[in-house]
Amino acid sequence: MAYFSTETFDFLMDLEINNHKAWMDENRDRYETFVRDPLYAFCDDWAEPLKQNVSPHLVSVGRIQRGSVMQINRDVRFSDDKTPYRTSMAAYFRHAGGEGAVHAPGLYLHLEPGNCFFGGGVHSPPVKALTPIRERIVDRTEEWDRVVETLDEAGLELGGDKLKTSPQGFDSDHERIEDLRRTSFVVMRPLTEDEVTSEGFIDLLLDRAKDTVPFMGFLAASYGLPF
C-alpha cells in the first residue's frame, strides 16, 4: 500500500510559505490526514518487518510521545529562526539499547519536498561516545575496511563532520585517520518523491535498511550492544 501521496508534499510546501499558527490551525486536518497519520501508520506497519529483516533491536512506534515520529513543532527558545513548525517530517528508529548515556546507532527517515532521504548511524554524539567507535576501528581495522567496502557496493556514502586535527590519543598516521577524525558516523541515501509515494515503499526501505546492517552492527558492537 502507499502511505504517502502528493498531498503529503503539497502540505509541506504550503507550510513553508505559511509557517504560522493561524494557518496551521486552519489546515490541521490536512496535516493529520496527509502527513502525521500516514507516518504513524508507516511506522507501525514497518515495526515487525524491521525486526524480522534488519534487526530485532530496532524500535518503530507510530506516535510522537515515546515513539519514532518527530514532532513538527520547533523548539525556538534558543534559535534566531522563530518560525513555529518544521517544514519536513521525520522518524527515528532507535536501538532498544540506546538508553541514558548509551549512544546506540539508529535509522532515520526524512520527508521534505525535494530533499527526502534515508540513513542511519550515530549523529553528533558527545566526544566520549566517539571514543569506543574510534577504538574499535583501530582494533579491528580490517573489519572496518570490509564494512566501508559493503557501503560503497550498496551506494551508501559514509558521511559526518570531521575534526581538523587528529583526535587526542589516536595515531595521526593511522591508515584510517580520516575516519577517526569523524565526529559523526552516518550513512545516507536520497529518496525520490515517486519512491516515497509508491505502493512498494515499505519494501524499498527495507532493502535500503538491510544495506546498513554491517555498518550498524559495527557501531552497536562498539558500545557492547547486539545488533
Write a compact overview of the structure shown.
The chain is of the alpha+beta class.
Question: Biggest sheet: strands side by side, in what order?
Answer: 1-2-3-5-4
What share of the residues lie within helices? 40-55%
Mean pLDDT: 95
Structural class based on helices, strands and sheet pairing: alpha+beta
- Biggest pleated-sheet summary: 5 strands, antiparallel
> What does the oligomeric state look like here?
single chain
N-to-C series of helices and strands: HHHEEEHHEHEHHH
Report the count of strand segments.
5
Give Rg in angstroms.
19 Å
Account of the 3D structure:
Helices cover 44% and strands 12% of the residues. It is an alpha+beta fold and 227 residues long. It has a five-stranded antiparallel beta sheet with strand order 1-2-3-5-4. A hairpin with a 4-residue loop joins strand 2 (106-111) and strand 3 (116-122). Helix 3 (28-53) packs across helix 8. The longest helix has 26 residues, at 28-53.
